[in-house]
UniProtKB/TrEMBL annotation, chains A, B:
Keywords: ATP-binding, Kinase, Magnesium, Metal-binding, Nucleotide-binding, Thiamine biosynthesis, Transferase. Mg(2+) 3 binds at residues 26, 71, 203. Its EC number is 2.7.4.16. Mg(2+) 4 binds at residues 26, 41, 71. Catalyzes the ATP-dependent phosphorylation of thiamine-monophosphate (TMP) to form thiamine-pyrophosphate (TPP), the active form of vitamin B1. Substrate binds at residues 50, 254, 306. Mg(2+) 1 binds at residues 43, 118. This is Thiamine-monophosphate kinase.
């Protein structure tokens, strides 16, 4: 059983109000009043699972907050506050100083405040719960893709996955790859700008195809994606040319870029966003009525998506 | 450095609005609009630290939600939703079934909904973040005790601590003690009823004196407590008589009863609450202008409070 089946089977109680949303999207949505909803998301990072042993406290802090902000971004929510549950094997002052100061810098950058937490002793693990607000009914949902929508991805993908692959092979990734892996930039500004422009949206944390697959499943549609249009940086491109290992791009995860679908009539608005935010947005395919993902391009290697269990 | 100093030093950024409250109380308070505040609290339970290895999934689920609801109770907030970060060493269907069904029963009982979560693989650990709402400015704060207030404790204390002591000594606690330790009842109804009646309030999670001490420190006051008035059940009473080990009552923790202070003019209202909720409330002392805790009664053994590091 993978993580999604597990959550669906044991923890999806489906007892929320009709406007609200529980398990099954990047964030939960809870109505606070007639005008506003709370968007909230929780993620745990464990040493040896989500980051290699020896990762600096600063990189861990960055990643922990960034991956959670990325979930808010995927809903179009504005960050408001977060809580921190920190489990440490021992009290280490320089570790805590590094961790807390990086956390604070990133929190200030994204205008989100740490309001509470818990510290415990045990194997190194960091759980953050971030909360944002969004106007009632305006969140970008996984379930809102329509056949005919154009599919976009922000910036480039596969960088973090290639870094992780190299680390596992005891190679040293380039600084650029390592930066993508250790200090990803959550696309909060883009997410907020996409409200009213994109239909469905998700952040790429488990791999492009798996995450796009969540949109397709929830929206009851399919997709055709053109491999040649997937935005890859030079290192990833040359790695794939050499190895034909497309998995770093399609199933790699950890990029925290946004994948979203836009109706044809909103493409002009999207161009304006791209220009305003000075961000690269690549059209990689279209939403189709046929279920599943159809891959167009020179590709025949099978990719397994990451399974938590 | 203990947990409180650690949080104060590294994570108390003090950058909230003046009406709001970050680290330093049972919950954080964040204003959502002019009428409402969000009260939010996070707690981590780790196997071997917060519950013994071999504790049933059902008891773990109960405790995890109960201790967090207890933090809402201590602020007088009404439970609304919670998130769950669950770290499991392996996929175990019967464990998950037990865990999720108990969690659901307790959540229904307290009218709180699970809205999101994360599951990861690793040493068994459960982090819950509960969120409630409270009318703007009405939360029961640690900082609101006044000299002359009467100090109360709900039900009895020391039961959970005695159970834990016996477990550590390889003894088998009675069913009643075990029930207090494994399935504490958060005093949510009492907490809500105390809004407008109590001044300061806290839940007893780390031990009566340590938790009362938080109220005293934040309120810049002291307390005189009468040991003979501390509500103890028969087992705890006879254990203390035999061993003179007052620590189970004063420094034991894990009772999740409320300790609160009430101004003399509100004592009649408190009597009405006691009657309505059919709950035992014991007056154990008074808030004083002199700092520190003065113990009245037959007691000379020193108790160390629980330190996280």
């Amino acid at each position: 059983m993978n993580e999604f089946d597990l959550i669906e089977k044991y923890f999806n109680w489906k007892n929320l109000n009709s406007n609200d949303l529980g398990i099954g999207d990047d964030c939960a949505l809870v109505s606070i009043d007639a005008h506003q909803q709370i968007a909230t998301s929780v993620d745990t990072l464990i040493e040896g699972v989500h980051f290699p042993k020896g990762t600096s406290a600063s990189d861990i802090a960055h990643k922990a907050l960034a991956v959670n902000l990325s979930d808010l971004a995927a809903m179009g929510a504005t960050p408001k506050y977060f809580t921190l549950a920190l489990t440490l094997p021992e009290f280490d002052e320089s570790w805590l100083l590094d961790f807390s100061s990086t956390l604070r810098v990133l929190a200030n950058q994204y205008q989100i405040t740490l309001v509470g937490g818990d510290t415990t002793k045990g194997a190194l693990s960091i759980t953050l719960n971030v909360t944002g607000t969004i106007s009632q009914g305006r969140a970008l949902l996984r379930s809102a893709a329509q056949a005919g929508d154009h599919i976009f991805v922000s910036n480039s993908i596969g960088d973090a996955a290639l870094a992780w692959r190299q680390i596992q092979q005891k190679l040293t990734p380039s600084d650029q790859l390592l930066q993508h892996f250790n200090t990803p930039n959550p696309q909060v500004e883009l997410g907020c700008a996409l409200v009213g422009v994109a239909n469905a949206c998700i952040d790429i944390s488990d791999g492009l195809e798996q995450d796009l697959g969540h949109i397709l499943k929830r929206s009851n549609v399919g997709a055709r994606i053109d491999l040649s249009q997937i935005p890859l940086n030079k290192e990833v491109q040359s790695y794939i040319q050499k190895t034909q290992d497309w998995c770093v791009a399609l199933a790699g995860g950890d990029d925290y870029e946004l994948c979203f679908s836009v109706a044809p009539e909103n493409l002009e608005k999207l161009k304006a966003i791209e220009k305003n935010l000075k961000i690269k947005l690549s059209e990689i395919g279209v939403i189709t009525q046929n279920k599943g993902i159809e891959r167009v391009g020179d590709f025949d290697k099978k990719c397994q998506s990451y399974q938590h269990f």
